[in-house]
Write a structure and sequence with these properties.
This protein is α/β, with parallel strands linked by helices. Helix content is about 30%, strand content about 20%. Strands 15-14-16-17-22-21-20-18-19 form a 9-stranded mixed sheet, sandwiched between helices. The chain has a 7-stranded parallel sheet with strand order 8-7-3-2-1-12-9. The radius of gyration is 27 Å and the shape is globular. The relative contact order is 0.08. The structure holds zinc ion. The site of zinc ion has 8 residues, from helix 7.
């Protein structure tokens, strides 16, 4: 890979900033996958060859300053006259070579071209000719999705047919690379029992394919891992094909989702894929109410933390409405689109607009991208090639999603993760996702002072050892729920692997040992409480701020853990009481020794929260839950947070350090109406805000309101006042 010198970088950005060109090709010292930052895509429909106005789109490419374009080539429908048997042409294509025309136009305009495939499904005539190339269930019934047949990843469809198409496209059209919308084949709920799968699985394991979902069966878990391994093989094989036909930089890149839960269900291994690819095409088009806008910044950070801080991650951002219900031909409310895109910027993601269909009657959707993409072009120097300024890491792993989450990953993994991440955003504690196999690398690179395990149960012995090493060296640890109770295959251990650090052990008959019981407990709600010690002077310091109460609303269920007799409980569990009739609402058992929170100092500070307040915060959004999670994170950090913000309401802050030494702080205004419930309908300004950053800076500049801000220095810190933020602001501090 070409290394970018500072000089080359400045020359490149100056050329782009001067508006001399939007061409990826001007950045001669960089391969296209590093220099093409802004993307666009018009997803063609079957009738588009008869109605597309190519000049309209060329103008739109120029207006939005894109450097790369995704153009439909093949898969379900070919947009060029393919010679590969069964590669069916789009119904409206006729003899036209629309992919060729668009590719030529894009190349003339200096754009990188990603040929788009949508490879996994095919029409009935193909299935009839080669039924053995398609996935089928144990009874021989094919899997049919949206009327199309799902191809098997182990047969000739993936081994011969798709490579032939890739070779044809790359040889004839010379795109910069090929990207595929749907490449992973059958999903976890669609096990294939074809002869090729049986043979391949037996070759790996010596056993027959598992016949049913049984997470306790080693053969079923092996089937999961075998599925992941095949997708990685496909990644490598398809890259060999495109590179052999188009040169070393002709990449094949499968699209990826930003939802780890979804990635698990389709066998796409985030860490392994992002470690091997030069560029990530992220198909993560919109926010969900359960995650909020901040999830986009978090996704960018999570992928960068495993893939490398300098890789390009364009993200497909729908300009049409996606929400609880989708309207692919109607404009997404612009405020909603803006905040999603800007949260992506805050996480180091690059913009990629997406329209569905070459002709749009709701023309308002063409106005959304231009100002954002132009802002990105102008400020790209500050938006790429940087590392986050953070002191706390949130630990994750996909095996935990698979083998601990099983079929209840939403409750067991997503909810605790979301609640914890949202509590930190709400408290302006910048965090970075850390894969459990990257603890040593990332704590070293980023200087992390504490790690959080949000109900991260499945850990290997080696992963446990690296957590232990971190704490022994003085790092803080904040663990919740069942953290460290399972091995990497999701099997319940004899005790927490971190029992000594957590200061608690799990009795033999505990409900957490039974997958059905723990999933039921995670789903349920009842009127339970957590009790604080009566004497406020004896309370743990993380509970300051709760002096006005002896109890906190809870909602979850806790069973006894084994503790040393002298162990103080910072919070204890009060079991469920009736909700009604009112006469019955009193505590039957107001005091217990069932721990809700245990705090200890063992080299580093360790807070163990058996109470699932992270999950509860994701569900109930009670401010006490968010406040306590944040207070515990701060306590584990010994207060070491690199940033402070005085502002009303909710602002998502993401600080970074560029390779040229500036500090860049993104501030996303989440006080706007409907920011927690999609879609946002109006941007409501907020301000003034006071931002303090631990940085030796003397100058500060806003990249959105484009003014210099006076900097006050206080010791290691600098402070600025930001008069007003509408949707977002980005402050660059320099010395
Ligand atoms: Zn198969």
């Amino acid at each position: 890979m070409t290394k970018l010198s500072r000089r080359e970088f400045l020359v490149t950005s100056a050329a782009v900033a001067a508006g001399t060109t939007n061409s990826f090709a001007t950045s001669i010292s960089l391969p296209w996958h590093q220099s093409a930052l802004r993307w666009g895509q018009t997803n063609l429909t079957e009738i588009d060859p008869g109605r597309i106005d190519i000049e309209f789109w060329r103008t739109h490419w120029k207006r939005t300053r894109i450097q790369g374009v995704v153009i439909n080539a093949g898969g379900i429908a070919a947009f060029y006259p393919s010679q590969v048997p069964f590669h069916r042409r789009a119904s409206g294509l006729g003899d036209r070579d629309l992919f060729g025309e668009l590719t030529r136009a894009a190349h003339e305009d200096g754009l990188a071209v990603f040929a788009r495939m949508d490879s996994n499904r095919a029409h009935e005539e193909f299935y009839r000719a080669h039924p053995d190339w398609f996935a089928h269930d144990a009874t021989g019934k094919p899997y049919i999705v949206t009327g199309l047949y799902v191809a098997c990843v182990n047969g000739p469809y993936y081994r011969e047919y798709l490579p032939a198409i890739l070779r044809e496209i790359v040889t004839n059209y010379r795109p910069q690379g090929v990207t595929d919308n749907n490449w992973n084949g059958p999903q976890r709920h669609q096990p294939c029992y074809c002869a090729n799968c049986g043979k391949s699985f037996r070759a790996r394991t010596g056993r027959a394919l598992p016949t049913r979902v049984d997470w306790d069966d080693a053969n079923y878990r092996e089937w999961i891992l075998w599925n992941y391994a095949r997708r990685l093989e496909i990644w490598d094989e398809f890259n060999r094909v495109t590179r052999a036909a188009g040169g070393a930089d002709c990449l094949w890149v499968g699209m990826m989702s930003g939802s780890l839960n979804y990635q698990s269900r389709v066998f796409r291994d985030d860490r392994e894929v992002f470690r091997r690819t030069e560029l990530i095409m992220l198909d993560h088009q919109r926010r969900f109410d359960s995650e909020g806008f901040a999830h986009n910044a978090e996704t960018g950070l999570r992928l960068r933390s495993v893939g490398g801080w300098n890789k390009t991650i364009p993200e497909s951002m729908a300009m049409y409405h996606l929400g609880e219900h989708n309207f692919r031909l109607a404009t997404k409310p612009p405020a909603e689109a803006r905040l999603w895109v800007e949260s992506g910027f805050a996480g180091g993601i690059q913009p990629w607009w997406h329209h569905l269909g070459a002709v749009q009657e709701d023309r308002r959707m063409f106005e959304t991208a231009e100002p954002l993409w132009r802002w990105h072009e102008k400020n790209q120097h500050y938006l790429i090639g940087r590392t986050p300024v953070v002191s706390i890491g949130l630990l994750w792993s996909q095996r935990n999603m698979d083998f601990f989450g099983r079929d209840d990953a939403g409750e067991l993994v997503d909810d605790p993760w979301n609640g914890m991440a949202q509590a930190l955003v709400r408290a302006n504690i910048p965090a970075v996702p850390v894969h459990v196999d990257d603890i040593e690398r990332l704590t070293g690179e980023l200087g992390l002072k504490a790690l959080v395990l949000p109900n991260l149960a499945a850990l290997s012995d080696a992963q446990v050892a690296s957590i232990r090493k971190f704490v022994k060296a003085g790092g803080g640890l904040f663990a919740t729920g069942m953290s460290s109770l399972c091995d990497e295959a999701g099997r319940v251990r004899a005790d927490f692997a971190l029992a000594d650090l957590l200061r608690a052990s799990v009795p033999r008959d505990h409900g957490w040992r039974d997958p059905a019981r723990r999933a039921a407990q995670a789903r349920e709600w009842s009127q339970t409480y957590l009790r604080l010690p009566k004497n406020t002077a004896e309370r743990h310091e993380s509970l300051r701020g709760f002096d006005g109460t002896d109890l906190l609303a809870f909602g979850g269920t806790l069973e006894p853990l084994t503790l040393s007799p002298a162990q103080d409980l910072s919070l204890s569990f009060v079991p469920a009481i009736p909700l009604s009739p009112p006469e019955d609402v009193w505590m039957r058992q107001p005091e217990t020794r069932i721990p809700g929170l245990i705090c200890s100092e063992q080299g580093g500070r360790v807070a163990y929260l058996p109470a699932d307040l992270d999950r509860r915060f994701a569900r109930d959004q009670l401010p006490d839950h968010g406040d306590l999670l944040a207070a515990l994170a701060r306590w584990c950090l010994r207060g070491d947070v690199p940033l402070e913000l005085d502002a009303p309401g909710l602002i998502d802050c993401r600080p970074w350090r560029t390779r040229t030494g500036e500090w860049v702080v993104h501030l996303l205004n989440l006080n706007n109406a409907n920011t927690w419930r999609t879609p946002v309908q109006e941007l409501v300004p907020t301000g003034p805000l006071r931002l303090r950053l631990r940085a030796a800076a003397t100058r500060a500049q806003g990249l959105v309101n484009e003014s210099q801000l006076p900097v006050k220095r206080r010791g290691d810190w600098c402070e600025v006042e930001i008069p007003r933020i509408e949707d977002h602001e980005v402050i660059v501090f320099s010395s």
